[in-house]
Design a protein that fits this description.
23 strands; 4-stranded antiparallel β-sheet; alpha+beta; 5-stranded antiparallel β-sheet
Length: 589
């Protein structure tokens, strides 16, 4: 998450009291920008903008370490809430102990704030009660105040005094509420213990309000009932009921949830009853659930399984993988619109050893289709891996079109002898010491049509830029284009099966025959797959200009996975979009 921007200044002085946290920064603020700003205060030891480990985007905050603690204090006093790239920053002392932030001591919550009150105005209002560690008005994505904020005092006594004196006062014409800050998880637990308001759905829409109320009164004294209706007065099938006592509300939820009371529930449905939750609370629960899923993803060994037949269900998937160990969960992904299998799923094992044993399922036939099994990766991790591969140039496996066979054969001794008798080579200039026809193998790879790169060992950016335009400056190329030698191959040189002309393949886009592909060598397999991939990628308008680069990236995948891409246009488009994202990120960096 961290990238250190270091300035060579003496580090002997302790920076314990000279480190500042700078928050609310724009994504495009860099260490260099901050150095130019804070060096006006005094000597800066180091600056660190915290970034996401996967996409390297700024997280919106940084740390600035001064050489002199007095300079850090002056920066806090004079530069807090100043604008950096048109966005007001928020500066506070760097507290290395996270418990000071998490225990809530000295923290107060203010709501019903006027839209004109910003961070600085809120700070100035509460500064009279004692030293403030942090002050923030919560805003939306557009920078508009959401009407509430937080003030964190250095001392608990200051927070108590501020809450007592400012609560119910008018600030900019609006009466504000000020109270001690409570973490959301703590408040939710309190609501669970005392709720009286319930949410009910899936009851019969033809029921009157009186019938709905009559059903609820079976479980206790009801304070109010509200059936939701549309503009025409028709019931939407859900309602809110508020009981007098918490015990009655709790009893109602436990007794009716997931039941089918006759004459009340809608046909084919089960009644859904739960404690009523506000939108903000529901969103918080969703975020917590996502975090728990991510924690489970890190805790358990997850496998990605694809090329599944439509008949394979989650239960089937769990059953076939159970022989390798304890399966925590197995799920086949279903299309929400068609309710059919997407052809892939996930299996989660309790321990990593079992998951590694289950990798033996890779290639096994299930319902007539070979499975592809690999370790599951999150989408952001996959994109980061692609970016790293592209940056380091490891994805550039060689792939060729049929015309490259001529160049490859010309690189052999027999091809060179045949070409020497044909003439037309005299106009070629040597390239990097290329002598005669012995160097044509590498050159032919760069001559492939449609900009397809192929030089093994070449940096991917150079390789991808090496197309027809890359041959400029090589003398005698017109003579090369005019040559049409009779390429009579010996049986040892003959390929297992002739490949159709590029134009014909572009028109028909045939799928690759796995049986015929299995008879080829590894390099020939990559050539055939690369040709088919390039043809399909080049037909996608948004990817045509980068078709060669994307093809080279996708050729790093397993051959069985590439076959799946060729058979599934939708899956290919997803991979192409991921590759375009990686290329775009690489260009920006």
């Amino acid at each position: 998450l961290q990238f250190l921007y270091f300035i060579g200044i003496n580090h002997n002085m302790s920076s314990q009291n000279s480190s500042l946290y700078v928050g609310d920064l724009s994504e495009d603020v860099t260490e260099a920008n901050l150095f130019d700003i804070f060096r006006e205060i005094g000597p800066v030891l180091s600056i660190r903008v915290c970034r996401d480990a996967n996409n390297r985007k700024s997280l919106g905050y940084a740390y600035v370490n001064f050489q002199n603690p007095l300079d850090a204090e002056r920066a806090l006093e004079t530069m807090n809430f100043t604008k950096i790239k048109d966005k007001s920053c928020r500066i506070m002392w760097c507290k290395r102990d996270p418990s000071l932030r998490k225990n809530g001591a000295g923290n107060i919550f203010i709501k019903n704030l006027a839209e004109t009150i910003d961070n600085k105005a809120l700070h100035d209002t509460f500064a009279a009660f004692g030293p403030i560690l942090s002050c923030k008005v919560v805003c939306d994505d557009k920078g508009q105040s959401l009407g509430y904020g937080y003030v964190h005092f250095e001392k608990e006594e200051s927070a108590t005094e501020a809450a007592d004196k400012v609560d119910q006062m008018l600030l900019n014409g609006k009466q504000v509420f000020v109270g001690k800050f409570e973490r959301k998880d703590t408040k939710l637990k309190e609501l669970e213990k005392n709720f009286t308001n319930c949410y009910v759905k899936h009851f019969d829409k033809d029921l009157t309000d009186e019938k709905v109320t009559e059903y609820f009164e079976k479980f206790g004294e009801v304070d109010s009932v509200k059936v939701s209706r549309d503009d025409e007065g028709a019931s939407r099938g859900y309602a809110y009921v508020n009981f007098k006592d918490h015990e009655d509300a709790e009893k109602f939820v436990e007794a009716t949830n997931e039941t089918e009371p006759e004459g009340f529930v809608a046909e084919g449905m089960k009644l859904s009853c739960a404690r009523h939750q506000r939108k903000a609370e529901r969103e918080h629960v969703k975020r917590q659930s996502a975090k728990e899923k991510q924690a489970q993803f890190m805790k358990y060994a997850n496998l990605y399984v694809k090329n599944l037949d439509d008949s394979v269900t989650s239960d089937t998937l769990k059953e076939i993988f159970a022989e390798y160990g304890d399966v925590m969960s197995a799920k086949v992904m279903i299309d929400s619109e068609t309710q059919t299998s997407k052809g892939f799923g996930f299996v989660s094992f309790k321990d990593h050893e079992a998951s590694q044993k289950a990798m033996a399922m890779n290639g096994r036939i299930l319902s007539g289709k070979p499975l592809y099994v690999s370790n599951a990766q999150r989408k952001d991790a996959r994109q980061a891996q692609l970016m790293e591969m592209y940056r380091n140039g490891t994805q550039g496996r060689q792939f060729m079109n049929p015309n490259a066979d001529m160049a490859r054969n010309m690189g052999s001794g027999s091809g060179m002898n045949r070409m020497q008798g044909m003439g037309g080579m005299g106009g070629m200039n040597p390239m990097g010491g290329m002598q005669g026809m012995g160097g044509m193998q590498g050159m032919g790879m760069g001559m492939q049509g449609m900009g397809m790169g192929g030089m093994q060992g070449m940096n991917p950016m150079n390789r991808m830029q090496m197309g027809m335009g890359g041959m400029q400056g090589m003398g005698g190329m017109q003579g090369m284009q005019r040559m049409k030698p009779p390429m009579q191959q010996t049986p040892q040189q003959a390929r297992p099966s002739p490949m159709p002309a590029p134009a014909a393949r572009q028109a028909a886009e045939p799928s690759v025959d796995p049986a015929r592909l299995a008879e080829m060598s590894e390099s020939q397999q990559k050539n055939v797959l690369g040709e088919n991939l390039f043809t399909r990628i080049n037909s996608i308008p948004r990817a045509s200009s980068s078709a060669a680069k994307i093809t080279g990236m996708l050729l790093e995948m397993d051959n069985s996975e590439i076959l799946n891409l060729l058979d599934s246009p939708e899956l290919l488009r997803v991979k192409v979009d991921e590759a375009l994202t990686v290329l775009g990120e690489h260009t920006r960096q």
